[in-house]
Amino acid sequence: MQQEGERERFVERFGSALTAAGMQRLPSRVFACLLAQETGRMTAAEIGDALSVSPASVSGAVRSLQQLRMIHREREPGSRRDVYVVADDAWHDVMMNTSAVYAPLTQTLREGVAMVGGPGSQAGDRLALSVAFLEFVTEEMAQLAERWDKHRATLDLLP
Fold first, then answer.
1. Under 8 Å between Cβ of 98 and 138
2. Which of 5, 47, 63, 114 yields a CA-CA distance of 20 to 30 A from 70?
3. CA angle centred on 84, ends 16 and 157, rounded to 5°
4. Cα 64 from Cα 102, distance rounded (Å)
């Protein structure tokens, strides 16, 4: 089937692009596979079949993607099978998750300033600059999220 072959080519191309950007290979392919799936939902067995990989490999890949909040797990109604789901606006969810990602880093860096020589030392100032940058990024991302929500409302795409 033409469309299925095209979808498989997209999954491999986009998976490779994510890998080149620094993501591990199998999680990249699993994310691409879910993103390209019409419903955005697949069981581990379906993912394994689509990517020709073992269930154990899928398990590790989906765990990694869940930690990054790129996908989430749901239980199929009336079943004991887990289904892995990518959000329609997955990039928004990942990018706007700055508090979970940056807050622990920022706090550790802030505490580290005194531990590496304090303000005025090269190491302390380097850590303080990292804190300032992460606080700046967090604030900018919050403003960007607001702008995206307004822009998305003007798009004639998914609800």
1. yes
2. 5
3. 75
4. 18
Structure tokens belonging to residue 94:
């990942």
CA–CA distance, 40 with 115 (Å, rounded to integer): 46
Q: Where are the beta strands (DSSP E) in 57-139?
A: 72-75, 82-85
- Quick one: DSSP state of residue 69? T
State whether the Cα torsion 59-60-66-71 is positive or negative: negative
3-state secondary structure of 41: strand
pLDDT at 87 over 90: no
pTM for this structure?
A: 0.78
Q: How confident is the model at residue 46 (pLDDT cuts 50, 70, 90)?
A: very high
Per-position DSSP letters for 44-56, written without gaps between them: HHHHHHHHT--HH
Distance from C-alpha of 33 to C-alpha of 122, rounded to nearest angstrom: 46
